[in-house]
Amino acid sequence: MDLEGQIHTLSRRLEENQNLAISLDRRMRGLVRQQHEPDAARQRFVRHAVLRMFGEDADPADVWRQRYGAKGASSPALVSVPEWAGVLSAEDVMGFLLGGQSPSLLARLLTYGMNIGNDWTLKVPYRSDSDFCGDWIVEGEPAPVEAISLASIMPIIRKVVSLSTFSRDLRKHSNPQIERLLDGMLRRDINGIVDKALVDDQPSSIKRPAGLLNGVTTTPGTGSLLGDLQALAGAVMDNGGSGVVFMTGPVTALGFAALPGAVPYTVLDSPHIAPNRVIAIDPQGFVGSLSGAVIDTTEAAVVHEENSAPAPIVDGAGVVAKPVRSLWQTATVGMRCALDAGWAARNVQYTDGTMP
C-alpha cells in the first residue's frame, strides 16, 4: 500500500475511534444521570421544605438565591419550578423516601411492582387463571382456543400527614444545617407512619389502607430460615405468582448472608416488621402510590398538641381540647407535610418464628 493509502486508512480508523469515544461518553453521561436522579429528587424535596420554612419571613425567590446561589424565577408560584411548586411530583416523593440510611419500604417495593402515581381510580387487571392458552399442534389442525379469565385490583389511597412544631430559635440556630435536619426529620416520620401500616394486619378504613397481612393465613414454619423461604416462595408460586420479593426485619435479614449460596430473590428489610417474621409477595401483583406531597409552615395557628387522638380546638359541644399551643404567642413554627399513599396486593404470604 502506498503512503497515500496508509494515510487514508489511518484517517478512517481515527474517525471511527472518535465516533466510538463520543458514543461511550454519551452512554456514561446517561448512566451518571440515571444514578443521580434519585439524589436530585431528594434534593428538590428538601429544598422545597426549606423554602417553605423560611418563606414566612422572606420572599422564597430571595431565599433560593441566597442559599443555593441560583437565579430564581420572578414568580415563586410557577408550577414549572419544582422547588416552589405547590405540589411536589410523584418522582420527587419517591426519590426523597428512597434516600437515607433507612429508605421507605413502600417506595422500594413500588420499584418492583406498579406505581400508579396520581391515577388513584385505576383498576389494574390481572389474569386469574393458571392455564396456558394454546398447545402444540399438527400442521393443518385447528389451534385450541380458550377464554382468558381476568380480575382486577384497585389500590386504596389515603392521606398521610406529619405535623411537628419547633421553636424559632431552633430554626435560626440550625440554619447552616437546616437541609440535613429536615431531610432526616421528614423522612423518619413519613416512612414510620406509612411502612408500619404497610406490614401490619389491620383492615382498611376511611383513614388508611389495609395492611399487607390483613386476611392472610400464616404459612407454617419449618424451623430453619432456608426451609421457611422455600415454603413461602412455594406458596406464592402455587398462588399464581411469577416471582418473589422477601421482606423481613434487619436482624433476620442478616441471617440471609449465612445461607449457602446467594438468595435468588430480592430481600428488603424494615424495622417495622415484627422480629423473626418473613413476608413474601409477588411483585407483579403489587400496586401502589406515593404522590401529591405538600409542605406548609406557619407561625399563625393554634394546635392541639396530641399525637394519638387529636381533636378540634373547640368541638360542637364547646369542649376545648387540651393541651393547645398558640404558635405566634410562643414563637413556634409549625410544619406540615401531607402526601397521598396507598397500595393493594393480591399474593402475599408470611411466616413467624423464623430464626436468623
Secondary structure blueprint with pairings:
Layout: H1 3-54, H2 60-68, H3 90-97, H4 105-110, E1 114-115, E2 124-127, E3 150-153, E4 156-167, H5 168-173, H6 178-198, H7 225-238, E5 245-248, H8 250-254, E6 266-269, E7 277-281, E8 286-298, E9 302-304, E10 324-326, E11 332-345, E12 348-352
Low-pLDDT sequence parts? 31-36, 71-86
- Characterize the main sheet: 4 strands, mixed
| Alpha carbon gyration radius | 27 Å
What's the total helix number? 8
Describe this structure as you would to a colleague.
The chain is an alpha+beta fold and 356 residues long. The chain has 8 helices and 12 strands. Strands 1-8-11-4 form a 4-stranded mixed β-sheet. A 4-stranded mixed β-sheet has the order 6-5-7-12. A two-stranded antiparallel ribbon has the order 2-3. α8 links the parallel β5 and β6. α1 crosses α3 and α1 packs across α6. The N and C termini lie far apart (71 Å). The relative contact order is 0.15. About 6% of the residues have low confidence.
